[in-house]
Amino acid sequence: MKFGQVEHPEEIDFTLPPTTPETLTLLQHFKIDKPFEVYVGCAKWNKQDLKGFYPRGTKDELAYYSTQFNSIELNATFYNSPGVDQVETWKKKTPANFKFFPKIPQSISHFSRLLNTGDKVKLFTDSIVHFDEKLGMAFLQMHDNYNPKDMARLKLFLHDWPKEVPLALEVRNKDWFSKPEVTKELYALLEETNVTNVLVDTAGRRDMLHMRLTTPTAFVRYVGANHATDYDRLDQWIDVLKLWRENGLQKLYFFIHQNIEVESPLLATHFIKKLNTTFDLDLTYPNKNTGNTLF
After folding, report:
1. Is 189 part of any domain?
2. Which InterPro entries match (predicted)?
3. Counting beta carbons within 10 angstroms of the beta carbon of residue 203, is it exposed (0 to 12), middle (13 to 18) or buried (19 or more)?
4. Is the pTM of this model over 0.90?
């Protein structure tokens, strides 16, 4: 993942911004006494990207990956909308508690730019609902040149989105975050349509770390810099999540990328261990039951 990559990450201030008052107010509105639902994973299961992660002789990468993590940010669906048969195949290879978080195809987000996409959305959603209980949340990632002048188009798309499929949105153009009146309108739209606001923690775009939730679900896409600071950054997230959970956070979906993906499982393992200790969870992570060291 090259978006937000910088040449000298040691020069970046990685301090997480304070949580917005609006986020705490929203969480408190939804606060109920129920177990904390947490899913943490990587973006890919491809052996070439995660070189060294798979034991020698591994024949099915997804089947193995799904025994080590409880979820995957499914970027493969960005390039082509999967057929029902493909979804069924993926589903059958994974354990009962595993979830997929498929990215909406670029034919909808980038090529059509949300215009006249009804048939394409139906094709995509009619397929991914076959994940059944293993469907976590679809997410829509817009091109960084998609800006607020097309707000009306976004409104129509979100209002028309099939409500039985949970949805998260990531906008990238800087104007969404630099103009307060635009930002306020965007967040109001997401709350109105029950769409989760994606937070992106990446070195070169700290403006996307808005700390503004629009549902009681936090969907975080964390991009490491292949630098020693990556672990400290994850530790900061534990403190933020404690605050959010205390105020009513119900679900956490946290996906870890790297510019060089080979290190993603190492970071994810570190983070999951911290989550397990902090929130008294029992999330799986690589070699949890063997005591072996990754790679």
Report:
1. yes
2. DUF72 (IPR002763), UPF0759_sf (IPR036520)
3. buried
4. yes
